[in-house]
Amino acid sequence: MPTNLKRHYFGTDGIRGKVGEFPLVPHFVTHLGFAAGIVLSRTVNQPTFVIGRDTRQSGEMLQSALTTGLLASGATVVDLGVMTTPGVAFMVRKINAEAGVVISASHNPVEENGIKFFNAEALKLSEDVELEIESLLNEPMDQLDSETKDYGRRIDGSDMRELYVNNLVDEHNGFSMDGLRLVLDCANGAASWYAPQVFSRLGADVVVIHASPTGKNINEHAGSEHVRRQPEDLHTLIEKFDANFGIVFDGDADRVIFVDEAGNLVDGDHMLAILADYFVSEGRLLGNTVVSTTMRNGALVKYFADRKIDFTETPVGDKYVMSELIGLKHQTDRPNQIGLGGEQSGHIILMDETHATGDGLRSAIYLIRAFMSSGKSTLAELADSIHKYPQVIASAVVAQKTDLDQLEQVTALREELERTLPGLTRLNLRYSGTEPKVRLMLEADNRHTEDELAQKAFTLCSAVQSATGTPEGSFLEVLNVTRGGLVARV
Question: Does 462 participate in catalysis according to the annotation?
Answer without folding.
Answer: no
